[in-house]
Write a structure and sequence with these properties.
Low-confidence stretches: 186-194
Helix content: 10-25%
Radius of gyration: 25 Å
CATH topology of one domain: Molybdenum Cofactor Biosythetic Enzyme, Chain A
Mean pLDDT: 85
Largest sheet: 6 strands, mixed
Strand content: 25-35%
Distance between the termini: 41 Å
CATH class of one domain: Alpha Beta
Length: 401
Amino acid sequence: MTFRDVRMRGFRARAAVADVLAWVDSRPAPLGAEDVSLLGAAGRVLAEAVVAGADLPPFARASMDGWAVRGASTFGATDLEPRPLRLVGDARPGRRCDVEVGDGEAIRIRTGAPMPEGADAVLPAEDGEEHDGGVLARGEIPPGRHVGQPGEDVRAGTQVLAAGRRLRPQDVAILSSLGVTPVKTGEEVLRAGTKPEGARIADANGPLLDALIRRDGGAPLQRGIFGDEDPRLETEIAEVPADVVLVTGASSVGPEDRVPSIVARRGELVFHGLALRPASPTGVGVVAGRPVFLLPGNPVSALCAYDLFAGRLVRRLGGRPAALPYPARRIPLARKVVSELGRTDYLRVRVVDGRVEPLTSRGAGVLSTAVRADGFVLVPADLEGWPEGALVEVHLYDPEA
């Protein structure tokens, strides 16, 4: 093409907008795929669809701290007339329990631990107590209650993410859980992106929090994975060179949940246990003058607790607005929502044909709900929900939505 100097000559001919658009659309697209690490995947566009190669979770697991039991063994139990159960062992995350639960027996269990043979329910810690070498059940627990089933989150062979999707922090978390790394574009915890093996699962919260902190203007300093009894954990919490400390996992009330006691011993545990679903085991404290956030181990709970609390402080420290960093729209509900008075609910939703569809799930550990959701609704603690058609404020995960 011959170049003609057009300076001070004006435009003798002007191209039609349609012709320019046609030229742009004729260019080769999209670019070729490249491999990126999990920690660099958030915000990138997925070049290939991701199909789950295995069930997630790969085994039945406890979704509460308490005791693994046969649900029928608790029938008839009340606070006034508790049912005694024999305590026959411990079930811990990251390992199979080799003790079978029989009628009238219980095994101490922590959230995320594989369910022992013979057990079909978890008696929550608040519904029982250990006494004289046994357990007193103070309420009935039906079979299946507080148990995450294999494949409850994702079934093997299911397409988890479609090609062309802009990856969110929770998308990176589920890729890590499935062992997908690189991405084209505690003791039970394996390195991020590792294929789940046996009773151990891959770290989803490390990549999740890394992406969230970067989004909010922070510079994450990952310190690794610590076992439940690792003596370095207390030193890290007290001495890590950071403005804010986030600890995910071991934040609840199980026998191995050391972090609340560490924070209380080395500083002040200001809050522990919130009227919030699904992140009730969240804690907040101060150690060596630095705020410490105790985030639950379940990824959806960690996402919720980070955005509402830890992320709010990260955003403020960086001079950004403290409010949730999601576009919000008022959209009518497609069906009624029921909530519990006195508790705030973080409800994942989809927007379908201009109406809000709540996504139902059995537990906080169902990460795929946050992946499938378009956003979330916060049900205030002073409401029992909303009727169908009510206008609700939806916080949309995608900025361009």
